[in-house]
Each structure stands twice: as C-alpha cells, then as structure tokens.
Amino acid sequence: MAQNVYDTPSFFVEYQKLARSQHGLDGAPEWPTLRNLVGDVRDARVLDLGCGFGWFCRWAIKHGSARAAHGIDLSENMLARAQAMTPDAEFPGISYQRADLEGLRLPTRAYDLVYSSLVLHYLPTPSLRNLLAEVFTCLIHGGRFVFSIEHPVLTAPADASWKRDENGTVYWPLNQYWDEGLRVTDWLAPGVRKYHRTVETYLSLLLSTGFELTAYKESWDGLDLKPRLEDTGEAHRPYFLFIAVRKPPAE
C-alpha cells in the first residue's frame, strides 16, 4: 500500500497552507502549461489519478465541458474536501473514489483522457509499471494521458537543497542520478517517501507500455529563464517534468 501521508494531521495542516491548496489550479504556476497539454476535453470522459481536492475534475466539467470526470485518491482527507467543494447541482458528472494507485484496476476503454498531477513519483517502479498498463487499458484508442511529476534532477540528490559556493553563486547539487529508488525527504513533515527515476526510465516505461509520445516539457509558461546567479530560483534547474502521450488509434 502506498504511503498515505496526506491523512497525517500535521502534514495535512501544512498542505492546506500551500497556494495550490487554497487557490486550486490558479495557485499552481505550472497549470497554464498543463492546460495546453490537456487541450480540448469537450464531451470527454476524464479520469484524474491522485485528484486531491478535485480541482481538475471541477475544471474539466465547468470550464472544459467534459461529459464526466472521475477522481481517485487514497487520502480520506483529500476526498472529504473534494466532496465538500463539489456540490452535485453545480458539478453534475463528477464522482470520487478512494483507492490505492498501487494495485488499481481500471475498466477497459472507459476514458478519453487520463490526467495526473505530481503523483507518480510517489509510486515504486513496479507499481508505476502496472499503473501505466492500467491507464493504457482504460483509454480509448487515440485517448490521451497527461501528467506532471517532480523532475528527476530534483528527486535525485542525497541532499536536495540549494548550495552556495565561495563567491555566493547558488547551485543545485546533482548526485546519485543513476541510483534509482526510494528517497525519504522532509517536505511539510518528516519521512515523506518518494521514488527517484531517470527521465530515460519514465520514457522507456511509457513506450514499452505502448504509448506514443506527443509532448515533453521541462519548463512552464511564465518561468524566468534568466535568474541572477546569486538568487535561488526554479530557472536554475527544472522543477517539473510534463509528459503527454496517447494510445495509438485503432488500425
């Protein structure tokens, strides 16, 4: 079973303070980039893996005119908040489900789009491989899978924090990049488990599952790509990795 840190009271209290928790998609700097990758969802059947507070499900119905949106999350806290923010009269067609993405089974050709935001790096590689197979199965031919993860440059280092040299220039240390596996970090609470994989591994897993790569991005719209060398900032190294793939159309 995956670690359910979001149901830990101390973690959840801190998580609710994040801009993306309080303002939803508008509080996530990467959302405009993901929005472009998601594209048209009009009349689509949408699945959100790791739906959290349900922001994407509500966007898909209210702004994207999707036919239906189904959100899956392991956290009872997250789902309780999602349900409270999703009145049936305002958001018809949305449903939520508590389930562990490790061992998840999905119906065949039930969705046009599968979406996942900053979730897949919580899964060990065998579980991720199985989940990708399920996503492939649940998509119609020509269906799309769009997701974001923490960039492997971020997850790799043993000490993932900004450093300064003797001249005051900031840099991001990179070591253990090829050493894939569990990383235990302190993020909002101690002992958060994430799994580091190389970019090569992510792409290889997707291609071996049968997906076709349609987009790959390491920056996001509005990112300042010319930071001052003495300032920390996301432009010094990638923070997110965005990938869009599709299930090949039927022959």
TrEMBL record:
One Pfam family, short name: Methyltransf_25
Protein known as: Methyltransferase domain-containing protein
Tree of life domain: Eukaryota
Keywords: Methyltransferase, S-adenosyl-L-methionine, Transferase
GO molecular function, one term: methyltransferase activity
SUPFAM superfamilies: S-adenosyl-L-methionine-dependent methyltransferases
GO term, biological process aspect, one: methylation
Domain Methyltransferase residues, every copy: 46-143
Protein source organism: Cladophialophora immunda
